[in-house]
């Protein structure tokens, strides 16, 4: 270890660093209060698995739509203005849950999530490279892993709110626990009363979240933020993109990131369906999701420390191997052991996003803002992959154990998709480490 290594973060900009780092928790909260909504909307609005998965398509599709415009905006103005616009869009999307619940329209909720993630796209496109720029380049990946370590704290908060204020309060879920299809067999007027009540239960945490986001908007508006003239100067878009896509480390990182995010969202979304397939209801299954996030948080802190001793590519490869092993166990082993393996994946996923991000943007200088946009656009993997998994689950019907595929229930087999994703991430890590040795 180099004893004269530059500090991860200078004391001079500690307050701005803390404020931007809190944003990582803020979008983590949005991510993980939303994951259980796939299963919740399916029950309340009587959807099939593919229709319910559109929650993730809307949520992560917003990232793909807005990431490049966010980078163009930041290129023209500044990181701070990009963050402020992101917070404004985030708040707007969250507050749209109020009219969505009033109209009882699924596609209104999807629109609200889509707008909300316009804001998240601005925040992630801006905050990630901003954190990278807040110090020496040799500590940039460590600095990003440190900030990203607060993301699962926000995610844990989202899951706890989802469990205590949404899932435990859903009347439709309580009825379904009494027997398969109880809610769906009620008369239409009875179902409508329950539907109104349950949609209001979903609405309230999002509206409160919108108010919290407005408070952060005011705080960041008032605080003087550091500005790196070299990395915030205007750069011609076309020339920047040409430079970026000359580097396999960059475009390989975009490709790997898309598959990583797809794997993460599949594992965190369908943990509820996996649990339900072995008789665990949603409001109990969230405990396994919380445990998965605790493992994710522990892995993030351990991984950040290990980056001082391991090359980033090598550590990424080793963690990908662990994720592949857990995924294989999830497919092959049914019951609680398979569920434990599914939660264990989160430990190995912990370092993947920031490590891929840091590797891909290393040495990109003023091109980092556009590079960041493509790495955030790669989050579209989280929109597409869960829908593909939903299609696998619908092969035998609306249930999760309707048919066996290659000798295992369809819910188990569907985790072949995350397994393939982790293989691709592992190959990228191995390539990066080998390039370093050459």
From TrEMBL:
It is a multi-pass membrane protein. Its main location: membrane. The keyword Transmembrane applies. The keyword Acetylation does not apply. It is found in: Cell inner membrane. Keywords: Cell membrane, Membrane, Transmembrane, Transmembrane helix. The chain crosses the membrane at residues 12-30, 50-75, 82-100, 106-123, 144-166, 206-223, 250-273, 285-303, 315-333, 339-360, 372-393, 413-433. Pfam families: MFS_1. PANTHER family: L-FUCOSE-PROTON SYMPORTER. This is L-fucose:H+ symporter permease. It comes from Salinimicrobium tongyeongense. The lineage of its organism: Bacteria, Pseudomonadati, Bacteroidota, Flavobacteriia, Flavobacteriales. The gene is fucP.
């Amino acid at each position: 270890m180099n004893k004269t290594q530059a500090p991860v973060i200078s004391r001079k900009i500690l307050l701005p660093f803390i404020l931007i780092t809190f944003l990582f928790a803020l979008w983590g909260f949005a991510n993980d209060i939303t994951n259980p909504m796939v299963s919740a909307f399916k029950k309340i609005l009587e959807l099939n698995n593919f229709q319910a998965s559109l929650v993730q398509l809307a949520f992560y599709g917003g990232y793909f739509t807005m990431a490049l415009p966010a980078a163009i905006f930041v290129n023209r103005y500044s990181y701070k203005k990009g963050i402020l616009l992101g917070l404004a869009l985030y708040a707007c999307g969250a507050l749209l849950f109020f009219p969505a619940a009033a109209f009882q329209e699924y596609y209104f909720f999807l629109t609200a999530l889509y707008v909300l993630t316009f804001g998240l796209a601005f925040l992630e496109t801006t905050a990630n490279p901003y954190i990278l720029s807040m110090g020496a380049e040799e500590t940039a990946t460590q600095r990003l892993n440190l900030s990203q370590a607060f993301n699962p704290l926000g995610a844990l908060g989202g899951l706890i709110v989802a469990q205590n204020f949404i899932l435990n309060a859903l009347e439709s879920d309580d009825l379904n626990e009494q027997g398969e299809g109880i809610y769906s067999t009620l008369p239409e007027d009875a179902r409508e009363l329950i539907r109104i009540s349950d949609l209001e239960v979903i609405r309230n945490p999002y509206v409160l979240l919108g108010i919290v986001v407005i408070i952060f908007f005011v705080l960041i508006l008032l605080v003087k933020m550091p500005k790196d003239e070299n990395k915030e100067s205007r750069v011609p878009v076309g020339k920047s993109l040409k430079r970026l896509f000359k580097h396999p480390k960059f475009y390989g990182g975009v490709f790997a990131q898309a598959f990583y995010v797809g794997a993460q969202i599949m594992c965190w979304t369908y943990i509820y369906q996996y649990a339900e397939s072995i008789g665990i209801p949603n409001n109990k299954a969230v405990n396994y999701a919380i445990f998965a996030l605790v493992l994710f948080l522990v892995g993030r802190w351990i991984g950040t420390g290990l980056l001082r001793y391991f090359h980033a590519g090598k550590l990424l490869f080793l963690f990908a191997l662990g994720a592949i092993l857990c995924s294989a166990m999830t497919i092959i082993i049914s019951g609680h052991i398979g569920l434990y393996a599914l939660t264990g994946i989160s430990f190995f996923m912990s370092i993947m996003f920031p490590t891929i991000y840091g590797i891909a943007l290393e040495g990109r200088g003023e091109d980092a803002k556009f590079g960041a946009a493509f790495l955030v656009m790669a989050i579209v993997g989280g929109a597409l992959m869960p829908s593909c998994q939903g299609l696998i689950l619908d092969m035998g019907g609306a249930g999760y154990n309707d048919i066996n595929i290659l000798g295992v229930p369809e819910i188990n087999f569907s985790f072949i998709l995350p397994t393939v994703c982790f293989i691709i991430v592992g190959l990228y890590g191995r390539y990066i480490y080998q390039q370093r040795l050459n």
